[in-house]
Give the backbone structure.
Amino acid sequence: MTTLPPEDNEQPTGLPEDPSTPEPAQGAPESPEVPPAPPGYAPPAPPYGAPQQSGHAGPPPGYAPPQPPQFGSPQPPPGYGPPPGYGAPQQPGYGQPQQPGYGQPHGYYQPQGRPADPMPNLTASYWLSVFFLFIPALIFYLIESPRATPQVRALHAANLNFTLMRTALFVFGWVLTALPLIGPTILGLAHLAGFIFHIMAAAKVNETYRRGGGDPFIFNLPMVK
């Protein structure tokens, strides 16, 4: 009886299998290789309505797509606040010097109008009238009376009244000079008395004004008020 040799991949019966012999891999069948497209070949266009696939790769992870512009007020860039509305006060930024307003600064004192001291004019009027009678008194009375206080007006009026009385006595004395001995005596006494009384009034007009009085003369005739 002739013995046939064993076929490939078959081991004789009764012999252990060789562990080094690899077993054929079982899996999905390999896809056939697609030949490369010839030069100048364009892929066919997709059918109408199908989404088109771009050849560009998708955005990297973590990248947010740009948002479409919104209609309305523009968004301010980061780091800047919204612009102030009309009528709202603007607040200066940090480190920016504040500009002072055009109005008056806080605590500014505006001096009020204060009447001038009437004593210089009163003193000048009285002393000039001692020597020149009613002319200086009339000038100061017309200038100072419209804008003076009632007390100052009364002092100017008293000076004018006394000078008018002195002038009247002086004229009356000249008339009496026609009489022998009597006329010159009356003229001299009237002129001397008026001169002395006027000097006394001019010397104390300041004190009379401080006390609130209105007539520094010893006697007077209220002809002008």
Summary: The chain has four helices and no strands.
